[in-house]
């Protein structure tokens, strides 16, 4: 179980870095984000903070959603 959580943290960190650097996310990224929102009780405090940062950036328009 610990390895699965470590992979989630790494994947979420990579997603955050890629999206923040590009300034946009794909529909697939947005779908992953929505799934994580529904399952926040399984995320660590740090992972929840990353999800909240991405959602905040989307709401503020700092990150756009692309169709690709």
Number of strands: 2
Radius of gyration: 12 Å
Poorly predicted residue ranges: 1-6
Secondary structure class reads mainly alpha
Order of helices and strands: HEHHE
Strand order of the largest sheet: 1-2
Estimate the strand proportion.
5-15%
Shape: globular
Tally of DSSP helical segments: 3
Mean pLDDT, nearest integer? Answer: 84
- Major β-sheet profile: 2 strands, parallel
Binned, the helix content reads over 70%
Query: Based on the structure, what is the oligomeric state of the protein chains?
Result: single chain
What is the straight-line distance between the termini?
A: 32 Å
Fill in the keyword field for this structure.
single chain; 68 residues; mainly alpha; two-stranded parallel sheet; 72% helix; disordered N terminus
Q: What is the topology?
A:
Blueprint: H1 2-22, E1 24-26, H2 27-38, H3 45-60, E2 64-66
Parallel strand pairs: 1-2
Helix pairs in contact: 1-3
């Amino acid at each position: 179980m610990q390895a699965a959580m470590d992979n989630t943290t790494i994947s979420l960190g990579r997603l955050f870095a890629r999206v923040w650097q590009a300034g946009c996310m794909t529909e697939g990224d947005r779908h992953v984000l929505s799934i994580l929102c529904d399952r926040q009780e399984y995320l660590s405090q740090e992972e929840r903070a990353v999800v909240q940062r991405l959602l905040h950036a989307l709401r503020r328009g700092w990150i756009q959603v692309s169709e690709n």
